[in-house]
Each structure stands twice: as structure tokens, then as C-alpha cells.
Design a protein that fits this description.
The complex is a heterodimer of chains A (about 240) and B (about 250).
Chain A: E1 5-13, E2 19-28, E3 33-37, H1 44-51, E4 59-64, E5 67-68, H2 74-80, E6 81-84, H3 88-91, H4 97-107, H5 112-125, H6 141-153, E7 159-163, H7 171-183, E8 187-192, H8 195-201, E9 204-209, E10 212-218, H9 219-224, H10 226-231
Helix pairs in contact in A: 4-5, 4-6, 5-6
Chain B: H1 16-19, H2 22-38, H3 44-60, H4 65-71, H5 76-88, E1 93-96, E2 99-102, H6 103-129, H7 132-141, H8 146-175, H9 186-213, H10 230-253
Helix pairs in contact in B: 2-6, 2-7, 2-10, 3-6, 3-10, 5-6, 7-8, 8-9
Classes of the chains: A alpha/beta (about 240), B mainly alpha (about 250).
């Protein structure tokens, strides 16, 4: 079966010459939930920007469900890859939640009843339907993050890519978001350095460090390898022991 | 819809005036203002009738007088200017209560006061019955360039975010013992303003990326159907229509 996401020998240097990725290789099968771990500055965000073609590969390829990311396929790629940004205030730019969730599917040319249906359905899946007519800036941070997830769910993506989904959330919102993510029936790539969250949600973990994939395996095994973690500036929080 | 409590001008409700499509209301207010401005200042009772027309709109929209009066403070600079005119005006003068007024100045003051007040009331009624974002969508339907509408939309959305950022920067300044007390502190405040500008600019870039990620290709998709029926145009046209009848009627009599 074609994997949801396939990244082959991906390398990228910023216009100023800084090399961020040195040949990244991995594939994610349909329905998998995978954590992409790495310290600050490892190239995680740069990698994410390649997944929907905001940055174009200097070398190597990215394919989403078999479709390579290139100029001509950007529209379809952006439908297939749902990117949830770290700051929901960047993601939610429309005056009301309804319009914001409708923005993506409307850009795909969906309108009328079908559009309304998709908006309601997406909000329902993150438990935010009652906020449909509220302006995003009147919601709590955790609610905004959930609406941000709904904005990409409404596009019925092949893969959901979350950038630091647990950042700035209070413990209850963090748990609620985890429950929602676990209940979704989509492929998920979760970029984070919140290791317990990765363990809670993802069976498989990748470590991106120095612009290459330094480890790829079951999350529990990756997190149990203290030496591996230490080599890549990752560590479990104080007092946390693998259950 | 719920964007009311932050925008002080909007007064949520469900009246026939609230329900009219925004483009109809915008056009009606503009038409009304044109008729009012075109009315010669000597036709005192025409202005009375215009005021009655607005009063009936306010009644239909259930906007109380106290709300209208509070929102009318924007007019105060014009009032101050108008009040000065009878004193500084030249030409023929009349005396009243021991004060001397210029007749031309009195007419000029009346002209400004009457027309500005009617215009302000009409605008306040429009703002009180139309959500800000709908107002912008209405303006777009009236062929306002989409780029301007998008800019205004983002301003509406990010105003609170930026004000909040500004507040945090002020708290950070004051937490380190700074308080702007005299002119020598202006450079510090100016640098904060510069930093705020850069932060907002960078946010703009991130928002743009988020928009691209969801398929943005230069124009906002039409999400809300705002088409107006001819009946709704007719209802909205009643305000400028009635004002025009008053204007033409008075003209016929004069």
C-alpha cells in the first residue's frame, strides 16, 4: 500500500546558505500516529514546511499518498496535508470560527450545503460545535487549538501534521486534546519535544537531529534509551518514569 | 452572532433592520446622507422630517435614545467648531441675552450642526445594527476593492491580539521600573512601538503561511451568501426614498 507520507533523501539549505536538512528519509503508513522528536533547531519546522510545499526541496522528494510535492500539485498537496501551526492566533485569521473552518474547504471550491456540513462535522469532531459563531479571540487557548485542528480536518486531509500541539496548554486542555487526537481516524505526524505526550499518543517515534533522522522505532524503546536521548538534547521531564 | 461585546458600536438584536443585508443598509445610509447634504439650510422643517425618519428607524431597530446619545460623542469636535462660528462670523449681527452674534455665522453653525447630527445618527444606527465583519462584506458587495476589505478584515481580527501584545510590553517595561512620565521617555516608548510593528509584521508572515497551507490563492473564498432580494433593497430604500420625497416636496413648495 502507498504510504501516507514518504520523504526521501530530503535536503534543504536556507537562501543564506545555512543547511537545515541533510538527507531525511522516512515513510509513514496510513493510519499511523508518529511523533517527530528533536531539540530546538534540529530542523523540525523546516521539515514540516516541506510537507505541504511551502518550502521546496533543495534535493530529494516528498510524496503524499503517492503524489509528489511539486509546483503543479500544490493545490492537491495542501488539501492532503493538514498543517496545524503552533500559535492558534496565526492559524485562526477569520472573524468567526465558522468562517475560519470554512476557509480551507471553500478554497477547494466547496460551497453551499456541503460546506456547512463539513464545517459542522469538523467542529463536532473536536467538540467545539457550540463555538461556531464566536470570534476566535474570545475562546480560551485550548479551545483555539482545538478549532485550529478543526480548520484542517474540514479539508479531509490524508495526514494531519501538528506542530507542538501540547505547547502552552494547561493540563486539562492537554488531556482533552489528546483524547480528541486519539479519536481521530487520520494519519498523524506530531512534531514535539514533549516526550510524555509523544508516548501517550504515538506508537512510533522519529528523532530528527542535526538535519537527519537519528532514530526511528517504537516510542517506548526510543524513550527508554537514555543515551540516545542525551545524544540529541532530549530528556524525560523530572520525576517521569516510563510506565 | 456573537462578536458584539467587544465592538462597542454594535448592539446585537433581531429586528427587521438587523436582518437587512449589510450592502442594502450601507447604500441606504449613503443615499440618505447625500439627500441631507443637498438640502438648503433654510428649509428648517425638512430637517425636522429627516430627524423623524431616523427616529422611526431607531424605533424599528429597538435602539434606545440613551445608546444613540452616548455614541454621538464623536460629533463633539464639530459642535465646538459650530458653536464658535456665530461669535467669530462677520457681517450683519444680532443681539441676544446681551451677546452679539453674526447672522451668517448662526446659519453656518446651524448648517453644520443639523447635517452632521443627521449623518452621525444615521451612521450610528447602521453600526448598531450591523456586525463589523458583515459591514465589510457588504462593502465588498458594493464593489469596494477586495484587497481593502481583506486588510480591514485582518485589522478587525488582530486588533485585540496586537493590543494585548502592546499591554504585555508595557507591563514588561513597568516591571523593570520604567514609567513614561515626561518627554525624555518618548524614545523608549517609540522603540517599543517599533518592536510591536516588527512583531506584527512577523505575525503577518506566519498568518500568510497558514493561509497558503489551506489553499489561499489570492482571493478570499465566498463563505457567506449575502445576496439581497429586491424586496430587501426596497425596504432599505425607504429611508433615502422618503428623504428624497421630503427634499423634492419642499423644493416644489418653495
Amino acid at each position: 500500500m502507498t504510504p501516507s507520507l514518504e520523504v526521501r533523501r530530503l535536503a534543504y539549505a536556507y537562501p543564506d546558505g545555512t543547511q537545515a536538512l541533510f538527507g531525511v528519509d522516512f515513510a509513514i503508513g496510513r493510519g499511523e500516529r508518529v511523533a517527530l522528536l528533536g531539540p530546538n533547531g534540529a530542523g523540525k519546522t523546516t521539515l514540516v514546511m516541506h510537507l505541504n510545499g511551502i518550502l521546496t526541496a533543495g534535493h530529494g522528494t516528498v510524496a503524499v499518498a503517492g503524489l509528489p510535492v511539486e509546483k503543479g500539485s500544490l493545490k492537491e498537496i495542501r488539501r492532503r496535508v493538514g498543517l496545524v501551526f503552533q500559535d492558534p492566533d496565526d492559524q485562526l485569521f477569520m472573524p468567526t470560527v465558522r468562517e475560519d473552518v470554512a476557509f480551507g474547504p471553500a478554497n477547494l471550491g466547496i460551497g453551499g450545503e456541503e460546506l456547512q456540513h463539513r464545517v459542522k462535522d469538523a467542529l463536532e469532531r473536536v467538540g467545539m460545535l457550540e463555538a461556531i459563531d464566536r470570534p476566535p479571540h474570545h475562546l480560551s487557548f485550548g479551545q483555539r487549538r482545538r478549532v485550529a485542528v478543526a480548520t484542517v480536518l474540514a479539508m479531509e486531509p490524508e495526514i494531519l501534521v501538528l506542530d507542538e500541539p501540547s505547547s502552552n496548554l494547561d493540563p486539562a486542555s492537554r488531556r482533552e486534546l489528546a483524547e480528541i487526537l486519539r479519536g481521530l481516524d487520520v494519519t498523524v505526524l506530531m512534531v514535539t519535544h514533549d516526550l510524555p505526550y509523544a508516548l501517550e499518543l504515538c506508537d512510533r517515534a522519529l528523532i530528527l537531529s542535526g538535519g537527519v533522522i537519528a532514530a526511528d522505532g517504537p516510542t517506548r524503546e526510543v524513550l527508554a534509551d537514555a543515551e540516545l536521548l542525551a545524544a540529541h538534547r532530549l530528556e524525560l521531564p523530572y520525576g517521569f518514569a516510563l510506565p | 452572532m456573537g462578536s458584539g461585546h467587544h465592538h462597542q458600536l454594535y448592539r446585537p438584536g433581531d429586528t427587521p433592520v438587523h436582518r437587512l443585508p449589510p450592502q442594502c443598509k450601507l447604500a441606504a445610509v449613503a443615499g440618505f446622507a447625500l439627500v441631507v447634504v443637498a438640502t438648503p439650510r433654510e428649509w428648517l422643517w425638512a430637517f425636522g422630517l429627516y430627524a423623524l425618519l431616523l427616529a422611526s428607524v431607531a424605533l424599528a431597530a429597538r435602539v434606545p435614545l440613551s445608546f444613540l446619545l452616548r455614541r454621538m460623542v464623536v460629533e463633539i469636535p464639530f459642535v465646538v467648531f459650530a458653536v464658535a462660528l456665530p461669535f467669530i462670523g462677520i457681517g450683519e449681527r444680532v443681539s441676544f441675552l446681551g451677546l452679539s452674534f453674526s447672522v451668517a455665522g448662526l446659519w453656518a453653525a446651524w448648517n453644520i450642526l443639523a447635517k452632521a447630527t443627521l449623518g452621525v445618527i444615521a451612521s450610528v444606527l447602521l453600526a448598531a445594527t450591523t456586525e463589523p465583519r458583515l459591514m465589510l462584506l457588504g462593502a465588498q458587495r458594493l464593489r469596494l476593492p477586495p484587497l481593502l476589505v481583506q486588510i480591514a478584515m485582518f485589522m478587525l481580527r488582530y486588533m485585540d491580539v496586537i493590543v494585548d501584545e502592546m499591554r504585555r510590553m508595557r507591563v514588561a517595561r513597568e516591571s523593570r521600573g520604567f514609567a513614561a512620565r515626561n518627554v525624555r521617555h518618548i524614545p523608549v516608548v517609540a522603540r517599543s512601538a517599533g518592536a510591536l510593528f516588527i512583531r506584527s509584521y512577523e505575525r503577518g508572515e506566519r498568518v500568510h503561511l497558514a493561509m497558503l497551507s489551506r489553499g489561499y490563492s489570492g482571493s478570499m473564498p465566498v463563505i457567506q451568501d449575502l445576496s439581497a432580494s429586491s424586496r430587501q433593497w426596497l425596504v432599505a430604500g425607504m429611508l433615502p426614498g422618503a428623504a428624497l420625497v421630503v427634499l423634492l416636496g419642499t423644493w416644489g413648495l418653495a
